Amino acid sequence: MKTNYVGVVEKIKMLSMYPKILVRFSLVTQDKTINCIVSKHELANTLLMLPEQSELAVYGHLNKRNQLVIDKMLVRKTLISA
């Protein structure tokens, strides 16, 4: 089942880089905190450059570990501090 959520990014962590990049993060929505995982190279690179507390809209499906596997991602708001 494909689902979409909007929330704030927390706890960005790279799990593996080789042979395939794998990044996890927590998405805090109004209702709950969702554990998310990204394996697409372009999305993972974008995510690793984001500061925490950025607002994201994500679209994906749940795996057997109940993690949201991200297929599409849109950065809604970033917090840039000087």
UniProtKB/TrEMBL annotation:
Listed name of the protein: Uncharacterized protein
Organism: Enterococcus faecalis
